[in-house]
Amino acid sequence: MKVVDLPFVRKPTRSLCLTALSLACVSSAFAQSSSPPLTPDQRADQLIKRMSLDDMHHMVQSYNTMIPQQPPGGIGTAGYVPALPALGIPALQENDAGIGVHNYPVGKDKNGQPTLVRGVAGDATPLPSLLGLAATWNPQIAYAGGSMIGGEAHSQGINMLLAGGINLAREPRNGRNFEYLGEDPLLAARMDGAEIRGIQSQHVLSTIKHYALNAQETNRLTVSSNIDERAMRESDLLAFEMAIEDGHPASVMCGYNKINHVYDCSNSHLLNDVLKHDWKFPGWVMTDWGADHGVNDALDGTDQVSGIDLGSGFSIGSMSSSFGAPLTQALANGTVPRSRLQDMVHRILRSMYAGGLFADPPVIKPLNADVDALVSQHAAEQAIVLLKNDHAQLPLSANVKTIAIIGGHADAGVLSGGGSAQVWPIGGPAIPASQPPVQNVWQWMVYDPSSPMKALQKMMPGVTVRYDDGSDPTRAAALAKSSDVAIVFATQWMCEAIDAPNLSLPNGQDALIDAVAAANPHAVMVLENGGPVKMPWLSKVGAVVEAWYPGARGGEAIAGVLTGKVNPSGRLPITFPQDEQQLPRPQLTDALDVDYNIEGAAVGYKWFDEKKLEPLFPFGFGLSYSHFGYSDLHVNTKGDRVTVSFKVTNLGDRAGMDTPQIYVGMPANSGEAPRRLGGFEKVALQPKESRTVTVTIDPRLLAVFDVQGDQWQVAGGSYPIQVGRSSRDLVLNGTAAVAAARIAP
Ligand code: BGC
Q: Which residue, among 619, 538, 529, 629, has the nearest Cα to 571 in the 3D structure?
């Protein structure tokens, strides 16, 4: 099925033999004579034969060079493994990239604004938040975004991105949900896998993170995520498993938290048994920054300790870390065998070969900022979810002559999320950046300079557009009253290391919206938020546009949807609850133990289905200016392979995109939530056009995880197959007669 054209996808970079000492050169020379080229594993083995113990030891620690004075070879990245020139091994420059190439604020200038120290140019283009990217339900968009940020990294001397955040949204108040891809393992994995493939197409390695169950920021360094094996294999771990298969990330970053009281990076079960044994992951495990807990982590499956703090000093090698002096000692006394160190180094080097790091080193060149911004804009346009549109209030009609724009700094820009995913925009923030009262140097509230108001003015010449900052609800209501339409921009700033206290919009914005809605029956809400929020005013407003953090050209994307230049096609990747009482944990806990067995594998919509709760907006929901119909369902089964095909038709009079979703019903006695997302496809259709969509369901989505047997088990029987517009709007019904099967993980 052809989806949407993406004119801006970068071409994969071509391998060139640039490094004289590179074994890639040797192997390509072989290839031209007759022997088959060496595999990345063979190359790594050959190189390791030439490495001393010190050389190998050198590879298993990275240094934090986010300091004003750089060590030799440092460019200001979060993780730096210096080159070993005698062996032709390039440096690893590992830079954060939740939504774009992170540029680091360190220190402040005389105006209280941060100074950036990351070497090279420092310019970078932010995509929409990853939650927004997930709302596109379009892996091609994720791939294009990944290749855009991979390309920006490559042209700035960076050859590894700390990207690929895929923690399932178990906790809607989690401050980092905007860095992740929602609540469903299949959707998150397909989007993450595509983003990682995009990054790595540019010869820039990617991580996938944070492995695993890193579901809240409160007590993030100490909290234990407690959950049964079966539940985690069917939920959070399944997301990692499928994304790793799809994206082949070079490295898995183990998280800060504990699982069942064992730290992620000391968790032999998670790292050795599941990741390396069951999933046969060939890459390396790097710790999150400061997430190492002693030299035994090496035996538990960790391969590299990340981001050793250089303080103000330069002398790499003298710093202490779990894999510094303690590893030297453990190798000397045999507690960590040399073969284990070789394995750690093998995993790093084979991934560097596989990713093209030897053959295609970064080439410093200026960004093509306009083209990159268009990639971001396309993503934002498909990310925006139209949640409500009574009486076709949107798109704005040609009869509208006066518009009131209220709040959210919409006259200047769009909000972005804070923390290590932050991208300091080209040309600087739209308004001076600010910080929370208690803060770290990297926590900033930044508005990207892409004003929805200015974009709207441009798209609607002749219309009077007036702005009120929303600080005084009475004044804002007066402006709303004297305008044909009032558009309120509501914001919820989220940031790494800070969870939201609840699901309410902060700073009295609900009262502002109430006042505006009372003054003007045509109130439109635009949300820029990091996760679900409550909407006590929902019945009083005409339309609601969920814009997430929309990135470099978010203003243009929002204005495009408001005016109808863009037909909205986003679908929710996360359930919006009515209130906190509907959640598995109504209170965000600050205890050191979080009980995830309450919902087990039933994360998000599965919990709402299991408990028969009516959400505010269900998973998968989103409106369009068109309307789509489904028909002609066929379900074909061959053993445990279920293939579903059906017809989707654009019944409206506008071209648009739809995302039909296939849900699989689980047997009542399975102990599972009633249904799971089994597949989806984003389809672009002209008015009255029909297409047949065909989707094969991964058999693990019909299975339960058998812990004793360490395998997936499909119970033979009849499985309901439903096709719908969301997890709560199921239109076509069929069944699949599935044979019993066992599947090795
Ligand atoms: C975050 C990671 C990030 C790392 C390096 C940590 O605090 O949890 O996501 O990659 O810092 O900046």
A: 619
